[in-house]
Amino acid sequence: MMTTGIAVQCADPALRTALEAWLGGLRLAAPPGLALDVAVMDGDFESLPTTVFEQPDVKFGPGPGNRGIRLTWDYAPALADVPAGASVATVRLSPDAVRHLERCTRTFLMAVVIVLLRRAGWYHLHAATAIDPSGLGWLVAGNAHVGKSTTAALLAATGWQVGTDDAAFLARDQDRILVHTCHAPIALREGGRRLLARAGGVVLPNRGKVGFWPEDLGGVWTPLVSPDIVIFPTVGKVRTTAEPMARKDALTELVRWSAWVMLEPDLAQEHLDVLTRLTGQARCFRVTLGRDLFTRPNRLIELVT
Amino acid sequence: MSERYVRHPDLRLADVEGDGVVLHLGSRRYFSVSESGLALLQALEAPRTLPELVDVLLERYEVTPEQAEASVRQFLETCRTADLLVPESGG
């Protein structure tokens, strides 16, 4: 079960087991040597002196000595330090945070893992990943509400291999940029489920969404994609269209959806270089997703090949 | 005494087939620049005077010294407004 390279150090055996189960369930083949050093403690948790970045429930600021990153959780007291160059994140959880462990792992600890993975040269991008029947690797980059999850579910239902609907990790592998993903359900809102005419799934707590594993939709989960095509979608009305993008424009879009590039000056250039290399490796398109995709899913392939 | 310029240490550059994309980590902004703008920002990794920057353009493009100087002055003004430069004083 444990395919992750991220170890858990924790004096509380029940918590350690729960966190190992969470990391194992992600099936993330992370580089070895990374670890979460987790302790549970009462008392005051320091607030961040300055916030340099935030996402739902989680704030990021400079770490001690202005080096590395400190993260805090809004939902319950929790704090993590990921020093510059370190392969171990020091995590302090309040008992209240432990009581909300599912939410804590999904938001706070996942953010810690994202920061930690940057230390190993894995750079986060908001993107869905897939491999089409001919073997081409696809990235569908963008934020929520641009159709990533619905597209990923549709492609899975058409028999494509699908990696993720949201969190991709870019890493160098010799001359290629590869994309690693977690094993997580594709999270669909009501609108996406209606378009796909899908019932069932697993209710995802606190998210207002229902999750579908790629396998449940008729697809196959793939942990690794070598991107040949990158699309930046928006949701349209009727007809799906695709417009080739200049590399410079594609790179600015990738920067937009890989916001962590702005964190930590020491890692920013390498992160930017990985995004730049991706624009040379893959053909990039601005795509408007239309309703016709639900009757002709392969129209995406026709438009870009 | 001539004014020398150096690019802001928070800048990170990407060269995409000659054109550039620039990140400003301090302000968390990003933008694209032209080929000549990228060449000047690359040169500004070390402190440069205006004549030295004019030479950068003259070495790369078929322009007159007057055209190059006008371009550099406009570029420096744009960079100053966007907080992309750190002025230095040199001999």
Keywords:
heterodimer, A: 305 residues, alpha+beta, Rossmann fold, 2 domains, 33% strand, B: 91 residues, Outer Surface Protein A, domain 3, three-stranded antiparallel β-sheet, 6 strands
Q: What do you see in this structure?
A:
The complex is a heterodimer of chains A (305) and B (91). Chain A is an alpha+beta fold and 305 residues long. Chain A has two domains: 6-119, no CATH class; 123-304, Rossmann fold. In chain A, 29% of the residues lie in helices and 33% in strands. Chain A has helices at 13-26, 95-99, 101-119, 148-157, 190-196, 247-256, 265-281, 299-304; strands at residues 6-10, 34-40, 53-55, 58-62, 69-73, 78-82, 88-93, 123-131, 137-141, 161-164, 167-173, 176-181, 186-188, 202-204, 209-212, 220-221, 224-225, 227-235, 241-244, 283-289. A three-stranded antiparallel beta sheet of chain B has the order 5-1-6. Helices cover 41% and strands 34% of the residues of chain B. The relative contact order of chain B is 0.26. The model of chain B has no long low-confidence stretch (mean pLDDT 92). Chain B has helices at residues 35-43, 50-60, 65-81, and strands at 2-7, 11-16, 19-24, 29-33, 48-49, 85-90. Chain B is globular and about 35 Å long. Chain B has one domain: Alpha-Beta Complex (Outer Surface Protein A, domain 3). Chain B is α+β, with helices and mostly antiparallel strands and 91 residues long. Chain A binds chain B through residues 52, 246-249, 251-252, 255-256, 261-262, 265, 268-269, 272-273, 275-276, 279, and chain B through 9-10, 12, 14-17, 19-21, 23, 25, 28, 30-32.
